[in-house]
Amino acid sequence: MRKALPVLLLSTALLAGCAVGPDYRAPALDLPEQWPEHVLLSAEARADWQQWWRQFEDPHLDALVARAVDDNLELRLQLARIQEARARLGLARAEQLPSVSAQAEAARERTPGAASPLGQSSTDNLFSLAGVLDYELDLWGRLAREREASEALLEQSLFAHDAVRLNVIADVVATYFDLRSAQRQLRITEATAASREETFRLEQLRFDVGESDELALRQAQSELESTLAQLPSQRERVRVLEGALGLLVGMTPAELMAELDYGDTDLEAIALPDGVPAVLPSELLARRPDIRSAEAGLIAANAGIGVAEASRLPRFNLGGLLGSAAGDAGDLFTSAAGTWGLSATVMGPLFDFGRSASRIETAEALAEQAEVQYRATVAQAFNEVRNALVTYEASGERVEAIRRQVTAFERTLELAEVRYREGFVGFIELLDAQRALLAAELALSEAMRDRLTATATLFKALGGGWQVEG
Hints:
This protein has 470 residues and is of the alpha+beta class. It has a single domain (27-93, 141-315, 375-461), classed as Outer membrane efflux proteins (OEP) (Up-down Bundle), CATH 1.20.1600. Helix content is 61%, strand content 12%. The strands form two sheets. Strands 2-3-5-6 form a four-stranded antiparallel beta sheet, with no helix packed on it. α4 runs antiparallel to α8 and α9 (355-421) packs antiparallel against α10. It is elongated, with a radius of gyration of 38 Å. It starts with a helix and ends in a 9-residue tail after the last helix.
């Protein structure tokens, strides 16, 4: 028996490296070699782009992003999930190691005479103290696959946190631009209302001295009231966006209910980057945290197949005991009280009526779902990049077109005012020019916001910040 035990240990050790189940292989994907031609920066110009929101050169925005990264509740939730995944990985690693426990026992037992060979009853004490070792030989790689799955799930949690962080930052940036645009539109409308109030006052004076009829007076009044009617909804939008931004950056309820102040940056003062760093399509798979998270989920699901396949095979456990036992507590730890034991057990299912097979089929189905999810995530990511590139170019063209439109309407209004004072055109022509300019100025504010948001969206679609290697 003593000769057979080393042979058993050696053979099981050789088998321990055999892990059942498929090894992970990344799915084959049909990727484009290059993006379409767009305004992209070279690799040499990437150095300052890891914190991409700083390219807008707005300290108020930088402060809001910094607070959101620290205080946003979604990010806190993801951090808690990372801690959970890290703890599960620690458990999976520990399962591959022996467990050592201590065992202490004190017993007093009466043996009846009928059960004694001498026919006499007796009462005996037993005291024992021992260390017990238990170790599962991972012959089929079940524990190794569980560790592989736990490592992948930890990576999935880490990448999911990065994805949420990127989304939160992009949402903060976009909401901030919305707020600045709404504030600018409110200022334009307030200035227009003041101008039209002055126009109405002048028309009232002209009407009083008989230089104008009541129709022109009422038209001026109607235009003033129409402009004033836009102010409540615009003020409401500013307040709503202030609250939305406060929620994104993790403000407390008390802060949200107080007066919110995000500085006085004007929309036009926000810098617009000249371009974005060039990222090859193949690099996007490594840059997008949502893609990395989906792939980590696929790796974990693939390892789950190995766990399920190994579970249907026998488990080998080794046990050992070393301690001291005596009838009197004072005799413990003497040479005569020494005790030890070795054991080896094999246990596996014989008839489980399809349970093991169902577990394997379930694991394979989950792996297939994970692969489909991974492919869908990749396709969605590339479509987001495509749309972001298109919007990025179109938004710039729209801003330039509306700027030219505003310039034309400003000149039109100047001429209309001159000709109205000289009596060559009626008051309705002047009102038309004022309406057109107001609409164009509001549209320009929206276009400027859209161009800034499109830039931020492109940053997000390409995976956020760029880390230069070298």
